[in-house]
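Recap from last week: sequence in, structure out.
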Amino acid sequence: MGVGRFVYTPILPLMHAQAGLSSAAGANLATANYIGYLAGALLGIMLPALVRSPAVLRGSLIVLAGTLASMPATHSTTVWIVLRLLAGLASALIFVVAVSSLLSHLREHPAHLPGWAFGGVGAGIALSGLLVLVLRSAADWRAAWWASAGLAAVFAAVSWNLRPEVAPASTVGSTTGTARRAGPRTHRWFTALFACYTLEGIGYIVAGTFLVAAIEQSSPGWAGSGAWVLVGLAAVPSSALWAWLGRRWSRPDLLCTALVIQAVGIALPALIGGVTAALISALLFGATFLGVSTIALAAGAYLQLPRSVALLTAGYSVGQILGPLVVTPLLHHGYHHALILAALVVLAAAVAAAVLRIGFPHHMAVVRSTVPGRQSAPAETTAVRTDLP
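Predicted structure tokens:
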């Protein structure tokens, strides 16, 4: 999923230079991918049987690799949009199945173990970025897409026999519902958290889409792809690290800190430029974008508002769709203005996180599952990560 969803970022500058793709069309391709991702996530929410289907997982793996291989077969922007939309849909279904499998089969294991598994997204980013970095001097944009399809196919084969989540023996009993109704009113904190996470979706995705192209405007060509490799490497341990920090520090404080760090990382290439700033930017961005999702979703589950994770997922996904659309008018002047606007949006998310910490109920009672035959982790742990970028 890390390859299929994010390889577009390092290939985008090659498509601008070699395939005649305009800046506006590049933003439209990104938006199509995020619309597909939202559709896939909603399907996973509305049709839980999909999450437990090996056929859905395998079909999505085939579709994702197939869309990557099909990109070089045409110069039609319309076809490219359809392919990226399908890639987003398949990516979301793969991710939902994988997350559900992790949380089901690793339920009684330490919390950092699923966090390391989510690092696979970062590994996919790093490997695909390294692939494009190697190919850019010896081949064209078509070879980059074909090579990424081959890389995705290798990982699809390795994950072919992943065991999806098993169907629960029964639904959560009335005890849990009573406990939820008896808890403190958390709507006001959830409103601030929802605003924070939606704003993060808008700001993060602008950098996640255009960071490489922006870096290459003021640095050597290798710096953009190299920075994207560093984003992936920094993302590999980030989810586990922020989950560990969440056991020792307030979630609102961690969320605000991570967002400020991310905003600095996004703004650096636009304000300073040069290779050093590009690499620092990549490190800060890669170390925080998965971590913000980890913390925000943990906070949402902790507040015990019904369907909180689903609501946060929807807001974040809508933010990802809006991000490229919001900055498209700025792309006529390059990508630096877009990065500055994205950094400001992420800072606005940090302000919302600061509001969240005012009176945040740090000592709420933990609601546990009443599913027979399972020793469940606290709700804040079992529902932490159901939507990462």
